[in-house]
Amino acid sequence: MDGDRAHPNPNASRRFPVEVFENIIDMLYSVFLTDRVEDTRALHSCALVCRAWRVRSQRNLFYSVVLHDVAAIEKLSTVLANAPHLCEYVHEVTLIGRTLHTTASPLSLLPIALHGKLPKLQDLHINRVQEDEDWYPRMSELESAKSLQYLPLHPRFSLFFSAFTTISRLFIYNTTFRYFNDFARMVNSLPALEILICDGVRCVTLGPLPFNMKPRADGIHAPAPPFAPNLRFLALYDVDIHCVQRLVSACGPRLTGLTVLMPFFYDAEMVLPGDLTMERTVGVDLSLCSTLEQLGISLGPEFATDGQSLDRFKAMLGSLGSEVPLRYVRLFANHEDVLTRQGFADILGTVGRVMEDLLHESSAQPSADGEVGEQCRRWRIWFYVWDWEIWLDWWWTYFERCFPTLAKSGELRMTYQPPSHDQRKWKDSGAPRPKPTTAT
């Protein structure tokens, strides 16, 4: 492929158009981190094959960068300094490894070492791998260092972090902050942030409510700027309910999409302030979410057994005002590998009864012009299921039986995809498909 070198057969280098090779190189991208490590190694090799492959390989190699430790950040900083044209290629950065909670945490160095070198950065993933997790390979000897209780962030970290003015999507996994305020300042420092997804984010101490999260300032101080003013979509999994409440209350008036895990998670180890009288502690209040269009609910196996989730679920949906233009309620399982198909179908049946009751209650109440039943039209249920195609009819049959009113009005939707990884496979994945029963 290299036009600089003579080849014994001049037609050998023209067997395939270069676009064919570029399309194959483009396939070296995966949403799964373990596969992305192998893709990175393959792209390194492709970039060294010939000049015709180099540009496309570098674009893919630097489009999504995976950093494991401080040394990886320093190396990337040096590469970008020596080849400034590569700065334009970087759109995603994933910071992953076992050193995030150590004194050698790469997160503190990230905004300093890469300041001004990532003008097109859009996505930032922060993922802590714990010591006992063997799904991710070990990358350096630093990973054997003793882990701290929380992220060791510099007091001025948020100021440095605010230099990333193009980040619109932030993903944080399995990470602990010392105070909720540290987490809130980090989120609020990104001026262009539109999407925030948190899974397993903890705080050692809840602390007082940050000033810019309060509903209104006191009479002495001027009102604070709104928290994360551009945030439109928020997804919170395994995040303590107090943190969920704070985020939803602060961002509610601007949210168009919200996803929460039920049952709500209560972090027994988090230190709570002495006075929580000003904050709700039982559920999520959606009354401030005046622009909400999609509400996602991830259902865990304890939803129907903990004795309180049904009431909190009903209260959360009931807190939506009749003027809220809600279009979709998305329902899906939280970790199919701990649920059987029939077990989750039973949970859907319980959810369906609650939502059907709410629909009947709202339809019985007259609207401002005296009409009855208009509020029923604001809910559409969208069910997401990961399973093999042979189970499609089985799932749809149960889905319709769980929501008979909405099924008659054609307000049910279902997205059906095969399992993408082991956690998407049901606990009884190998079981034969039974015939649906007549009862929900």
TrEMBL record:
Residue stretches of biased makeup (Basic and acidic residues): 421-430
Q: Where is this region: Disordered?
A: 416-440
Descriptive protein name: F-box domain-containing protein
Specify the species.
Answer: Dichomitus squalens
The root-end lineage is: Eukaryota, Fungi, Dikarya, Basidiomycota, Agaricomycotina
